[in-house]
Amino acid sequence: MGLRSNERTRARYGEDSSGWDGGPIPYPSTITPVIALSDNRFEDVEPSDTRDITVTVIDGGVPVVGDTIIATSSDPSIVTTSVSGITDGAGQAVVTLTAVADGAAAILIQATNARGKPAVMGVVTPVPVVTLTVLPTSLTVAALAVGTAVLTLQTDGVPNVGDQVAAVSALPGIATVAVPAVTDGSGNTDIVVTGVAAGSANITVTFPNAPTVVIPVVVT
């Protein structure tokens, strides 16, 4: 009596069928399927940003075709996912993530028919919103006189304490600016400008991930 189909496959390709190239494996592989992700981090994003994650399912070295991929967010108020995808001839499907709000959430990506453990993505951490505000928004000072503007540094509405901003004068021959002190408990620090000669100059204030602030200065 001849070998049955599964036995012929084992005889030719071995127990894991890693050499099978004739379509779907005709019997369950003894190798645990592998679920691979093109990216396991979704961070440094703003709300409404999206990213496509390619999910690849391999069983015994062979792509798993027609498998349903389901992505689930632990907190849809932070990040949402596309409903599902079906693996193609390369064993791949695409899941789209969309950031909704600042925060962190875990994304569970699972191949429903493969016998492997679910693949888990990393934590989603959209970029916090950093703001610089200055009052007054412009300064007028006399030559050799000093003018002061109060700068407030916040992240997601919370004061940044103990941070230092950078301040540079575009025309030091017109107006100079002192190195700002670190921010206090309210996230404030003084931008101290000294008039040098009559004219106009801009003071540029920067901090990582915050929009640049420009303070126009007129020296009389």
Fold and architecture overview:
The chain is mainly beta. It has 2 domains: 34-125, Immunoglobulin-like, CATH 2.60.40.10; 130-219, Immunoglobulins (Immunoglobulin-like, Sandwich). Helix content is 4%, strand content 46%. The chain has 1 helix and 19 strands. It has one helix spanning 5-13; strands at 34-37, 42-43, 50-59, 62-63, 68-73, 79-81, 84-86, 92-99, 106-111, 119-125, 130-135, 139-141, 146-155, 158-159, 166-169, 175-177, 188-195, 199-206, 213-219. The strands form 4 sheets. Strands 1, 3, 4, 6 and 8 form a 5-stranded antiparallel β-sheet that branches. A 5-stranded mixed β-sheet has the order 2-10-9-5-7, with no helix packed on it. Strands 11, 13, 14, 16 and 17 form a 5-stranded antiparallel β-sheet that branches.
CATH classification, class level of the largest domain? Mainly Beta
| Share of residues in helices | under 10%
Order of helices and strands: HEEEEEEEEEEEEEEEEEEE
Largest sheet: 5 strands, antiparallel
Q: Supply Rg.
A: 30 Å
Portion in beta strands: over 45%
Give the termini separation.
107 Å
- Indicate the CATH topology of the largest domain: Immunoglobulin-like
Give me the count of strands.
Answer: 19
